[in-house]
Request: fold
Amino acid sequence: MTDGRLTNQIRTLRFLHGEMTQTDLGERIGVTRQTIAAIESGRYSPSLEAAFRIADVFGKRLEEVFTWERPAARSRRAKSGG
Amino acid sequence: MFGLLDMLNPLRSDLADEPLPTSHRERVARLSLLALGLAFVPYFALVALDPPTAPLPDLGSLLRFAIAAGVQVLILAIGHARLRLRQPEEARAAADERDRAIAYRSLQLAYYVLLVGLILVGVVMPFEDSGWKLVNTALFALVGAEVVHQAAKVWGYRKGWHD
Reply:
């Protein structure tokens, strides 16, 4: 497996969309609220189709919701406390 | 937009440390592990301490196994009923892509355990052993594979496969 990690802005986007619940988002893309929680916390990488569906719910492009973080970028962010 | 999202980053900074909500399928996997443990740990402990020596079919040994299987079925029935009563909507929900991915990965792991058990029971042991020793080793392989299957599911739901 290559290094790096898929991160996302789903929780922030839910907050910005009237505090949409994980259940609401899950229902709109056809997964359970537990799966949304797992995606948000980075413990499950969604299929490409589910990722597109999530981006579509928020009216965003895929890369505005999901970002591939290289290890170097992660360590820089950790050092800066972000 | 990215600027605003970055400003709101504290909302997601500690997400990886948060406990995930438990899904119905994870509860079922935990229940299955509990049932296997309560039914078959005593059974295999008894078999190890007092191995059956009578020729097949040995009704006493069959009764032991029937009791173990009965205990497992009883625990599963009561547990499933309770889970369905407490969260009927989640129990009715179809499996989503994460459920299917976890089921696939856990079955893959269990398959290897079953394969080793099958080779042991069907290819290696018949040269020297027979009777209940073969039967119980086969049962041990089946139960072991199921334990790995359910434990891998729980692991998948708790930790994910991307750590």
